[in-house]
Every structure is written in structure tokens, then in C-alpha cells.
Amino acid sequence: MEQKKYLKWYNKIGYGSGDIAGNCVYALLTAFMMIYLTDTIGLSMGIVSTLIAASKIFDGVSDFFFGRMIDKTHTKMGKARPWMLWPYIGCAITLVACFSIPTSWGQTAQYIFFFLSYTLLNAVFFTANNIAYASLTALITKNTSERVQIGSFRFIFAFATKTVIEAVTIYAVGWLGGGVIGWRLIAIIYAVLGLITNTISVFSVKELPEDNEETEKEENKANKENKLTLLQSFKVLLKNKYYLIICGSYILTQLYSSVIGMGTYYAKYILGNEEIFGTLSLAINITMVVALTVLPLVIKKLGGMYKLNIWGYIVAAIGRAGVMAAAYMGSLPLMLVFTAVSTIGIVPLQGDLNALIASCSEYTILTTGHRLEGMMFSCSSLGLKIGGALGTAICGWLLDAAGYVENAAVQNTSTVGMLNFLYLWLPVILCGLVAFLMTKLNVEKANEKLIEEKKLAELKNN
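The chain above was modelled as a monomer; its predicted structure follows.
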């Protein structure tokens, strides 16, 4: 039987545009935060990497806290939309602060300024905004196909934004005066753009009324979550094996994004021109946007997400192996071709991840009777930040240990070898690990089995 439809085309596009705002923060931090701090401000890569890792301690707590706060929120705007709207103001302010390290201060004060602004941005404001945004997938529609569609729209906007930011930022910083002034101005521009698009996204959708449940029994189940403490809710999540698999997958995919982000250093010190990073990013992001437009049709034709995600990451691993071979051959055109191939493999999980988390949330409802959408979608923020920030930190530690010298005309042999490992070898390994986890993530089938068992039990009781 065909599922009820809840969204118009403009709701889907409006929701997806929210990831323009998200990537005004995330793409800028992932691709350029480290190189700004080391090559413009002159801070130690090792110390900065340690501060980023330490900041994740606060992030680990805040993800579940804000997820729980969303679950307990009841306003006219709904549960998630208020948490998406207001925290972005803090995102904009602290994003600018991260790229406004006072150059007249001593280095100790600069490290403290960076740590505080970075932690507030990630652990507080971006966490609240990002979890709320992800939670809307389950709160604005119950239709699985629509969830995949809005996930695809979301990531089309995300990678389109990422494409522009990675392609033009280095040039734009130069146009705006270069150095600390250029970086501060570009951060202000992205912060304002993020504020505008986030607000548009919030008001383009409406959450389903809490009293609009499919059955009275489901409504009673929804009320059970109010009786759970934060610790009890966390324990409920840990009982959901699919939640743990998604958390692991999300962390690995963001680690992958971080090591690909080291392409700024790879282009500058291995290929000899940091502007080539923009070309490599275009091969990724243009392919991603095009492939995401057809993803819902592919998933519909295949009747599910499970096998597509597995084979996708197998293709991704093969593609990155091709990038590695092409790099050692010294062929940039071949690197671009295999980068596009790898990206095609990554697309399915990128587009259907929110739909998978929503299915994971349904698994928790079916097995425990508790609705915990906010905490369930905390895995998206948790994985995004832990994977992204720890990936950046680990890369920084490894390069620092290898003897990296900022703005050196030629890096030492150890640093060159480490850059090759981070940009060429590690992505292949990470793709292989994600492919393995995907073999364990058949949550759609698990839900169908639980629903059938429930129906049979009800028939027996009647």
C-alpha cells in the first residue's frame, strides 16, 4: 500500500537548504581551520590538534544533552525547530571568532581564545542546531520515500555549498586582502549567509502535530519517554545495535572527510599548488550533487537501501585505490577521474543516512515503546563532530610528529610520506571499514520483521 505523503516540493527544497547553513560552518572548519591557524596565525599544529581533541570531551556530553532537550521540548513551533533557529545566532558569532584570533596577543592567550570559541561553536551552538535539523527528518514526515528525498535534497545543498566554499575560499581570502583580514572577512560572509539560509529552512517546514499519531497505542508509547531520565534514555539507545552501527559509520565517514580535507596541505606541498585542492574538490562535489539527484529513484527501484550502501562503499574503496595509483603515476587527470568514481560510491549512504536513522528510531519504538528522535539523531551530530574534529586532530598530530614546518618551501621526506599516507592510503582503509559496517545495517528488514510479528501476535490475541 502506498504511504501517505506529507511534503510538497517546496518543503523538501526548503528543508534541504538548511545544510547550506550547516556547511558554512562545517566545510569552512574542516577544510581551512587548521591551515589558517598554522600558516596564517603561526600556532603549533601539535598544540592546536590537542586542543581540538580536548574540545571533543565537551562535545561528547552535549550531543546527548541537546538530544534529550529536544525530546522534552513542546512549543507551537514544535520540538526541534526552536533548537534549530536560535542557536545558529551563536554559530555565526563563534564562527567569526574562530577566524579572528587576535594577532597582538601572546600565543598562550591565542590558544585560549581559539579553544573557547571553537568549543562554544561545536559543543553548544552547532550541536543544538545540527541535532535539531537532523531530527526534523522524523518529525515532518512518516513517509520513508520522502525521508530519502529530503535527505538527498539536504546533501545536494550540503555538497553544492562545500563545492563553492572549497573552490573559492582561498581565492576569496586573497581578494579580501589576504592574511588575518581576509580570513576574518570571509568568515563574516559565511556567517551571514548561514544565518539567512538557516532561518529560511526553519520556516519552510512544519512538524507534525504530536496528537497526529497513527494510532492511540502509538501515542501512549510516545508519552513513555517523559518518564525516562537522561541516563535511562542513553541506556535505551545502547540497546539498539543499529544505532551503534550508524554512530560508528558516521564517525568513519567524517574521518574520511577530514583526511580528504588534508588535500589543502597535499596540494600545497606535494602537487606544488594549493589551488589544485579546489579542482580536486570540484571532482568530488559536482559528482556528489549530480548523483544525489537520481538517488531516490535508484533506491525506489531497488526497493531499499541495504545492498546499495554496501556496494557503494566497495566502489568507493576501489575508486580511492585508483586515486592512489594515479597519484604515484603523477597523473592529475586520472586522479580526478578516480576521485569521481569514488564519490559515486559514497553517494548512497550520504543521501539515505537520515532515512536510516529515522528507521533506527522506529526500531527503538518497536522494541522498547520509547520515542527518542532527538537523542537518536544525536548520532549525526556526534559522528559529524567526533569524526571531523578528531580526524583533523589526528592528522595534525601525525604531521607534527613527522616534522611539518609551516610555509616551508620544501617539506622533509617524513612529512611528504605522511601526507601521502593521509591523503592516498587512509581513505582506502576507511572506505573498506564503512563497507563492512554496512553489511550489518539491515534495519529496514528488522523493522519489517518486528511489524509482522506484532500483527501476528495481535491476530492471535483476537
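Confidence is low (pLDDT under 50) at residues 212-226.
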